[in-house]
Amino acid sequence: MIASTPIQIERTTTPKPKPPQDKLGFGIYFTDHMFIMNYTAEFGWHRSRIVPYQPITLDPAAKVFHYGQTVFEGLKAYKTADGRVQLFRPDANMKRMNRSNDRMSMPPIPTELALEAIKGLAKIDQDWIPDGEGNSLYIRPFVIATEALLGVQPSLEYQFIVIMSPVGAYYPEGINPVKIFVESHYVRAMVGGVGEAKTAGNYAAGLKAQDAAKDQGYTQVLWLDGAEHKYIEEVGSMNVFFKIDGTVYTPALNGSILDGITRNSVIRLLKHWNVPVVERVLSIEEIYEAGKNGKLEESFGTGTAAVISPVGELNWRGEKLIINGGKTGQLSEKIYNDLTGIQYGKLEDPFGWMIEVH
Amino acid sequence: MIASTPIQIERTTTPKPKPPQDKLGFGIYFTDHMFIMNYTAEFGWHRSRIVPYQPITLDPAAKVFHYGQTVFEGLKAYKTADGRVQLFRPDANMKRMNRSNDRMSMPPIPTELALEAIKGLAKIDQDWIPDGEGNSLYIRPFVIATEALLGVQPSLEYQFIVIMSPVGAYYPEGINPVKIFVESHYVRAMVGGVGEAKTAGNYAAGLKAQDAAKDQGYTQVLWLDGAEHKYIEEVGSMNVFFKIDGTVYTPALNGSILDGITRNSVIRLLKHWNVPVVERVLSIEEIYEAGKNGKLEESFGTGTAAVISPVGELNWRGEKLIINGGKTGQLSEKIYNDLTGIQYGKLEDPFGWMIEVH
């Protein structure tokens, strides 16, 4: 099978200067190399290669521009104090990518092949993994439909590409609570749609609400369900958790919510600590109720970029709810410290989450 | 203002052979030239140019690949019997494009500028408009986000591109009814989402249901509303009409349905003829009810590609409903003949819809 041939490597002859550690931001700078692999209906996935980071050239009729067949993933490589390079649960990302591929009528990518690509690329550009507390190398695998044909049918040609960006600490001055606007007008996704797929269209669909929330001084929106605008889905591009009276709640996966890998890791960590955690349908009303009764102790979002993002305030139809006095809760902080501790190799990894790049 | 500078034209030195008239299909062949214009936050829309049809080159971090900010339009140029070239309601397309741009947090394109681009391109490649009954030149304007940045915010850079494809008659053997599967599981869009925007993600989201319907012998799916799976939205990528007891019904625009230009033209034509036409919420149940009572006389879809596509059969939860004995209805045929008659310049155009290209 052509797909199993080794990765061809073409090294750059003009390595770029690395950006200053304190100016990294998120997804602004890209490393010296990228991975590409092609798919055709005839040959399947083939021609896997690492090449110098470069523009891609597509026919203007390529389906990605017109019908949006695309999926992506996001994960990070970390450098440990003793100089090892490790990835956080890349196998989980590759499995999810294939669930997204399936939902978008796109061909699956053999998990081993995708993992090899990511490890190979992380290895060749490992000097790009920044030192410094909270810094890491963000890895962005994505698949795009490239067939040049305007018929509305699944593309017969694709490219799988991996690019990488050194990123700074999400909270340069330490983990800080955000203010969240509960969105009652716009809807991100609904059951029966593509909300659980990590596909480009879901993100474009959320921009207008996000901009409106920012105009009012909020960092992100909290999305409610599309049918009744009653039930909590997710926060911006993160999953969301609430600690009420000692128990941690998060919306159950229903097809319209992203099956977050940080979400899943937090649930496993909480169970490991014997903290009660419940996945179920959660209404915004009961969160406000708990807030008024003094039982809402903490809230936080989970995602690859921020890991844990405490929520200090909600605004639902003009009614503000301050959570934990607007401060980071103890449990939020403990989860953040433990998860990042595992990721940076400072703490033991009892779950076998970290995959070392040799 | 830079945007108002004239269009720069670079003609091809290697014109392509034209495809055979009987093998045109849809969106397979592209003409010799394309239009491109750039947008930056600093300069607005600028550098409008017609160049030889060619691949486009983008950074792999361009936002269109990751967050799906893109809108498109579709319209046609027709050649009349006496050799004139005319466009069908291009102003309506450009206005809709800007409504889509707004929903997707993308910058508007001055309508005059976009119309000039389309007319200029149609003129330079007018030899590509195929002769022959039902043939036309399909024009595909689209806008893509090109900024190379992985933050989830609206792009600060875009390209507006127009490509054109000579297309064949949708029904080479005359207008023929299609079989439609009523989709009860998957959902295309919902109120509060981006269903009324002509954006790539809406089309990718529909592919899986479409493929499942095709596997069962159906041409397209009929989408129901996302909240209750009860109310009719649209058919595949067309709007849908039902003639019941002498009155024509079509779902009212609600934000999740595309504001079709053919849909609007059909409504205006019906009013012109004094045929009662009603836009309102329509349940699939009442359509089946009307079918059982013998009051459902005709059904048809409307769109740029097919103009009118009669519906001969519905299948809802396994229950088949044959419409008008599976044959094309009289009114469907009359609308088709009159609309295409106006488009090809065979009939008078009482609405001022046709715009001639000089």
Can you describe what's shown?
2 copies of one chain form a homodimer. Chain A is an alpha+beta fold and 358 residues long. The first copy, chain A, folds into 2 domains: 2-167, Aminotransferase class 4, branched-chain amino acid transferase, N-terminal domain (D-amino Acid Aminotransferase, Chain A, domain 1, 2-Layer Sandwich); 178-343, D-amino Acid Aminotransferase, subunit A, domain 2 (D-amino Acid Aminotransferase, Chain A, domain 2), CATH 3.20.10.10. Helices cover 23% and strands 31% of the residues of chain A. The first copy, chain A, has 7 helices and 19 strands. In chain A, the strands form 2 sheets. In chain A, strands 1, 2, 3, 5, 6, 7, 8, 9 and 19 form a 9-stranded mixed beta sheet that branches. In chain A, helix 2 (90-103) crosses helix 3 (111-124). Chain A starts with 7 loop residues before the first strand and ends with a strand. Chains A, B: Residues 1-20 are annotated as: Disordered. Chains A, B: Its cofactor is pyridoxal 5'-phosphate. Chains A, B: It catalyses: L-isoleucine + 2-oxoglutarate = (S)-3-methyl-2-oxopentanoate + L-glutamate; L-leucine + 2-oxoglutarate = 4-methyl-2-oxopentanoate + L-glutamate; L-valine + 2-oxoglutarate = 3-methyl-2-oxobutanoate + L-glutamate. Chains A, B: Residues 1-11 have a biased composition (Polar residues). Chains A, B: One of its GO terms (molecular function) is branched-chain-amino-acid transaminase activity.
